[in-house]
UniProtKB/TrEMBL annotation:
Gene Ontology biological-process annotations: proteolysis
Gene3D superfamilies reported for this sequence: Acid Proteases
TM ranges: none
GO MF term set: peptidase activity
Keyword ATP-binding: no
Species in which this protein is naturally found: [Mycobacterium] crassicus
Pfam family, one: PE-PGRS_C
Signal peptide: 1-30
Residues covered by the PE cleavage protein A C-terminal domain: 110-387
Keywords in alphabetical order: Hydrolase, Protease, Signal
UniProt keyword NAD present: no
Name under which the protein is recorded: PecA family PE domain-processing aspartic protease
InterPro entries reported for this sequence: PecA_C, Peptidase_aspartic_dom_sf, TAT_signal
Length: 401
């Protein structure tokens, strides 16, 4: 995900996909220093030292300290003080709760996952200690985006760190603020794992083309599949690649995540598989694609678990003529290779398996390719955070102890 997304709501009640390749999303830099600079100028008559300070950073830092003090004294502390009275105290359970302060962190942690609408892998998360919320597991994005009302206000750990506007695939615009908080994952046996991170809290959303019939929320944009998007791709365009909850997990659990869609689970930690195909970059990578057995053509691709049925640039089609609706004809064979053009990553035939394999959407000749979810439905894929821009490791066998 970025400010320019690659997933689009297509026909009513269905989710399609096409790639919107644009400039990277601007970083959310509207911090409190920027927001309150006019106030610094305005109150200089109260505290001449603020305006006269030869180091503006020091002046703004003192103002930040002032506002943080107000926030702690007037908002944070009172709210947290009445939280047990309103909601009742936490009741200890038998399951283990792992957090950044735990001294007994496991080497790996498994979270159940299921697939909605055939192509959307979904898990449950709790933000700020709030209710469980379904989110899409999306390698094509970076950062957790969800409506602000799905975030427990008593679990916000500080002031917002930025404000920004994002966009999903030319279909949905959203205004959000980046909030420091916690994201908690629940394992199959009830154990919990918590990351100190930030979440992009959506204040409001509206259709990008101002159509009254367009999506007005993340949930409607995803055709009711989930209410938020958990972006886990380290070199995705946005919205906040500096804070990916799965990479912010404590200890070795933040080293990477295995998406085992056929097995119905996510596994946090070092890769439990060996012998897979290593692709530099996650999700953006250099790939090659062949249509109907033609010589492979180089493409810049997004290996995207949330990409639905994917996209295909018209420059690689050769003699294949797309349908009027921008899809490829049934019977078209697609083969995707690593950058070397010989290591096959996956292949499929459009319209095979009783219509279960649908076509990618044909996009402009200079656009990138999006794998869609097909690859993830066939074999496990590991996202490695341990190298710059990440790695995508496809397949492999279980490491024997």
């Amino acid at each position: 995900m970025s400010a320019h997304r690659h997933r689009l709501v297509g026909a009513v009640g269905a989710v399609g996909a096409f790639l919107m390749v644009g400039a990277p999303a601007p970083a959310a830099q509207a911090d409190w220093d920027d927001l309150f600079q006019p106030l610094v100028d305005a109150i200089s008559w109260v505290d001449p030292g603020v305006a006269a300070d030869t180091d503006p950073g020091s002046a703004l830092a003192s103002l930040d300290t002032l506002f943080n003090g107000w926030y702690q004294d007037l908002v944070y502390t009172p709210l947290h003080g009445i939280a047990p009275w309103l909601f009742g105290p936490d009741v200890p359970g038998s399951a283990v709760a792992y957090n950044p302060d735990s001294t007994n962190l496991p080497d790996s942690f498994t979270v159940p996952m299921h697939v909605n609408l055939n192509t959307q892998p979904v898990i449950n998360v709790s933000v700020g200690g709030g209710a469980q919320t379904e989110v899409l597991v999306d390698t094509g994005a970076a950062g957790l985006v969800m409506p602000i009302w799905n975030i427990n206000p008593f679990g916000i750990t500080g002031l917002p760190t930025g404000f920004n506007i994002g966009q999903f695939g030319g279909a949905l615009n959203y205004f959000y603020m980046e909030l420091p908080t916690t994201v908690t994952f629940t394992g199959a046996n009830g154990d919990t794992l918590t990351a100190d991170t930030t979440v992009d809290a959506v204040l409001f959303a509206f259709p990008a083309n101002f159509s009254p019939f367009g999506p007005w929320s993340i949930e409607s944009y995803l055709a009711g599949s989930s209410v938020g998007i958990l972006g886990i791709g380290p070199n995705a365009l946005g919205p906040t690649p500096d804070h990916i909850p799965t990479a912010d997990l404590p200890g070795t659990l933040g080293h990477g995540v295995l998406i085992d869609q056929p097995g119905g689970k996510l596994i946090f930690g070092d890769n439990p598989l060996e012998g897979g195909t290593v692709i530099p970059g996650a999700p953006w990578a250099d790939l090659k694609v062949s249509i109907d057995g033609a010589a492979p053509t180089a493409v810049r691709g997004v290996i995207d678990s949330g990409g639905v049925y994917g996209t295909m640039p018209s420059s690689v089609l050769g003699n294949v003529t797309p349908n009027a609706n921008g899809t490829l004809p049934d019977g078209t064979t697609i083969a995707v290779y690593a950058k070397d053009g010989t290591t096959l990553l996956y292949s499929y035939t459009v319209g095979s398996q009783s219509g279960e394999v649908r076509s990618p959407i044909v996009v402009g000749p200079s656009s990138g390719m999006n794998t869609g979810n097909w690859l993830f439905g066939q074999e496990p894929v590991y996202i490695n955070y341990g190298v710059p821009n990440g790695q995508t490791i496809i397949g492999g066998t279980l490491i024997q102890a």
